[in-house]
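User:
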Amino acid sequence: MNDALLLLTLHWLLAGILAMALSHKLRAWPRFKAALAAYQIVPPALVGAAGWIVAMTEAMALVLMLIWHPSGAKLAAVLLATYGVAIAVNVVRGRMHIDCGCGDEPAPVSWALVLRNMCLMALALWAVRLHAAGALTDDANWWSALVALGLAMVGLGIYQAIEQLFANRGRHQRLWQGIG
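Assistant: Predicted structure:
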């Protein structure tokens, strides 16, 4: 796989992940704010504003990823690192019962989610490196963009399967704890 194809695939994949995350936030805004408040990182009075900042930053990263702009990968890496650190802080605090706020189905925070975010951040940083090396100027064309889109769709399918495993784990824990 040439660098241009890899870079475009990373852009489509990360854009898809950002789109799913943003969609969840906007469709379930009260639940997202509750998850953000449960992290106890942002003062309660600022949770609403922080939520909008997160959502707008995700939207900006998504648009930049869709137009293959190098700043999109950088912004995605910062977002993913921030989410990973927030999750890690709560795992270290022993607050593993809270919802990560990652998707439609509640999933408890865990080291596995931290690892997932670090892996996604590594993909975003790989895209940053490929941009810096001029990968898009090499062999990028519409055909490679379509092939990259297909590859990214496969990657999104794998990502969704992993997300379902996290959701199922949360369901299993709630079932055995008698929470719902």
